Amino acid sequence: MAFIGAGSVVFTRNLLTDIFLFEDLHGATITLHDIDAGRLDTAGMMARRTSAQLGARATVVQCPERRAAVDGADFVINAVQIGMHEATLIDFAIPRRYGLKQTIGDSMGIGGIFRGLRTIPFMLELLGDIAAVAPDALLINYTNPMSMLMWAGYEAFPDVRAVGLCHSIPNTAREIASYLGVDHEQLVYECAGINHIAWMTKLEVQGADVYPQLRAAMDDPQVYARDKVRFEL
Predict the structure, then answer these.
(1) Do the Cβ atoms of 137 and 170 come closer than 8 Å?
(2) What are the extents of the domains in the chain?
(3) What pLDDT score does 105 carry?
(4) What is the pLDDT of residues 61-84, one digit of tens each?
(5) Which residues, at least 6 apart from 31, have a Cβ–Cβ distance to it below 8 Å?
């Protein structure tokens, strides 16, 4: 399993924690790659400590070369941020100069397009590496703009297996469950759309539609204040 952009240490730690909780993945080889040597060292120490704490018996390898990190992998996880924080500031500053204010700017609109133009070339290089040295691997992409990157990838490398994942869906489900006053594990949901712009097309608890209860919860000023934009939409 190769982590590309492993220097995003908090994200990598959280994802590795999820992975190490599956006993079937104990004993796996985790290859970490990042272009920042210092961040890569930190990620390596964190990964080994997390594996030890959870008894996962993982073999953690640090690899400064991207293609070598991907070579022979069963899974490739992409979590890079091209340009880092400095580039993200530009994504906000230029549109704001012309009167366009954004909340996040990583998925759509001008900011999302800027980020996409920076990141799509990298995405295609990574897919090229996978096609060359790990053709049976599954790419799991967490980098935004999710929809733009996956679209570009499918067009350029249709034979490489790739999916986009984001914690926003389960996190939103947890929020909805809290509005309904139910355990999030009871909530059965179906979500459709594009990343960060999606809709829950089904919300059920024990087979019963709970959208009426969600609409009723919206009438509570305290609940409404927690999520004004989503409730308005």
Answers:
(1) no
(2) 2-166, 169-232
(3) 75
(4) 999 999 999 999 999 999 999 998
(5) 1, 2, 3, 61, 62, 63, 69, 73
Least Cα distance to 159 among 141, 134, 176, 181 occurs for 134
The band of 128, judged by pLDDT with boundaries at 50, 70 and 90, is very high
DSSP output for 50-68: HHHHHT---EEEE-S-HHH
pLDDT in tens, 79-100: 999 998 899 899 989 999 999 8
Fold annotation for 2-166 = LDH C-terminal domain-like (3.90.1820)
- C-alpha to C-alpha distance for 30 and 124, rounded to whole angstroms: 23
Segment holding 198, helix H or strand E? strand 197-205
At 88 the three-state DSSP class reads helix
DSSP state string for 95-150: HHHTT---S--SSSHHHHHHHHHHHHHHHHHHHHHHHHH-TT-EEEE--SSHHHHH
Residue 197 burial (C-beta neighbours within 10 Å; 0-12, 13-18, 19+)? exposed
- Classify residue 109 as left (phi > 0), alpha (psi -120 to 50) or beta: left
How wide is the angle at C-alpha 11 spanned by C-alphas 6 and 14, nearest 5°?
115
Tokens of 85: 């924080």
Residue given tokens 């941020």 in the structure block: 81
Tell me the catalytic residues: 167
Could you give phi then psi for residue 125, rounded to 5 degrees?
-65, -45
